[in-house]
Specification:
The protein is of the alpha/beta class and about 375 residues long. It is built from 11 helices and 21 strands. The protein is elongated and about 75 Å long.
Length: about 375
């Protein structure tokens, strides 16, 4: 195996989960958003650990993500946030006990067919579009939706949900209040139409942290669970979550390069001095985005070393001229903490105009993940 890997600290995820529990009332359940392979971290080991910690729900985007969890022995409720697109996918949800989010009237007909075939009643969560403009029944469509929903005795509306567009942006507080007011109104319409869903929920990580009024009796946390603090801006420094994922590689070549020599594709970097340049076996096919060319940095032996030249598909160059006593085989930390230096996913995202979420989601299957249960666990790489 080439020396490039990620470590995922399950103990940090567990700590973050308990931290989230401390943000909500004792009656409020927690859904761990583990779609997209737990934002690139690895869904199955995380779900397995969270079940032991007492998680209530999991959230996935796609039925196949939920099936993978069921096949790994995960038994807690799973909300399929993306619902389904066709009858066979609705059947997948029914057959694997995945609760779909419903956001179109005709999805009721499809789900009812799947339920009939399975010979039992099936639960769903109704998603309301209160202002996000994405998935959900709009406030205008709600009366006709509810009229239609009454026709299916084998479908049970067990939850009602909405999604907040800007719970992390204080200058859009009025919009969040507008969404929450719409949601309140939608719940009244449900009650009046005779529906009594068990769960009502609207908070993502930002809503969980900033908007207690959005908690309902279930919060849906993703970013906070992984230790992303930009998930919940503005009070970023008050948030005591721990990043769970670190990204590592090792120096596979060290080379002295005189001043004024180009490095890498496109001659995009010229050495400014006699330099010591190291090659790392990681590139954009691993998810180290090409946008980090000449702007990213890594940690080697307790110093920052800048990325120089273009990040290529499998390889990246760093300038280690100022790293004392650097050796072939030294570890390079691309994301994480070593000694007293840290590179967070937030910082990496910020550098290239994106957010922490996209940084870890970008890591590909080519990077092996090692799941560590306690601080002194360490893979041999
Ligand atoms: C992904 C997702 C979440 C979690 O969002 P975070 O910002 O990661 O906490 C919550 N709700 C829905 C509908 C989602 O798709």
């Amino acid at each position: 195996m080439r020396p490039t890997w990620a470590e995922v600290r399950l103990d940090h995820i567990a700590d973050n989960f308990h931290y989230i529990k401390g943000l909500v009332s004792a009656e409020t359940k927690i859904l761990a958003a583990i779609k997209a392979d737990a934002y690139g971290h690895g869904a199955v080991p995380i779900a397995t650990r969270l079940e032991k910690e007492g998680i209530d729900w999991f959230g996935v985007a796609l039925a196949e993500e939920g099936i993978k969890l069921r096949e790994a022995g995960i038994s807690m409720p799973i909300l399929c946030l993306g619902g389904f697109w066709r009858l066979d996918q609705a059947k997948d949800c029914v057959n694997h006990q995945l609760t779909p989010a419903i956001y179109r009237r005709d999805m009721l007909d499809t789900l009812a067919s799947a339920a009939q075939e399975a010979g039992r009643a099936v639960a769903y969560h109704l998603k309301i579009d209160t202002g996000m403009g994405r998935l959900g029944i709009t406030m205008d469509e709600l009366p006709t939706f509810l009229e239609h929903a009454r026709r299916f005795p084998n479908l049970q509306m067990d939850g009602v949900m909405t999604h907040l567009a800007s719970a992390d942006e204080p200058d859009k507080n009025e919009f969040t209040k507008f969404q929450l007011a719409n949601f309140q109104q939608a719940k009244v319409m449900l009650t009046n139409a005779g529906f009594q869903p068990t769960f009502h929920h609207s908070a993502n990580s930002a809503g969980t942290f900033n908007w207690p009024a959005a908690h309902g009796n279930l919060v849906r946390a993703g970013g906070l669970l992984y230790g992303f603090r930009d998930a919940t801006a503005p009070e970023i420094d008050k948030i005591a979550v721990k990043p769970a994922l670190s990204l590592h590689s090792r120096i596979i070549l060290l080379k002295h390069v005189p001043a004024n020599k180009p490095l890498g594709y496109g001659n995009s970097y010229l050495t400014k001095r006699d330099s010591l340049i190291a090659t790392l076996p990681i590139g954009y096919d691993d998810g180290l985005r090409r946008a980090y060319s000449n702007c990213g940095r890594v940690i080697v032996r307790g110093s920052f070393a800048p990325i120089v030249g273009r990040v290529s598909m499998d390889l990246t160059l760093i300038d280690v001229t100022d790293v004392a006593d650097v050796q072939l085989g030294d570890e390079a930390l691309l994301l994480g903490s070593a000694q007293d230096l840290t590179i967070t996913a937030e910082e990496m995202g910020h550098m290239i105009g994106t957010i922490s979420y996209e940084v870890t989601c970008a890591l590909t299957g080519r990077v092996p993940r090692f799941f560590l249960n306690q601080p002194d666990d360490k893979p041999i790489c």
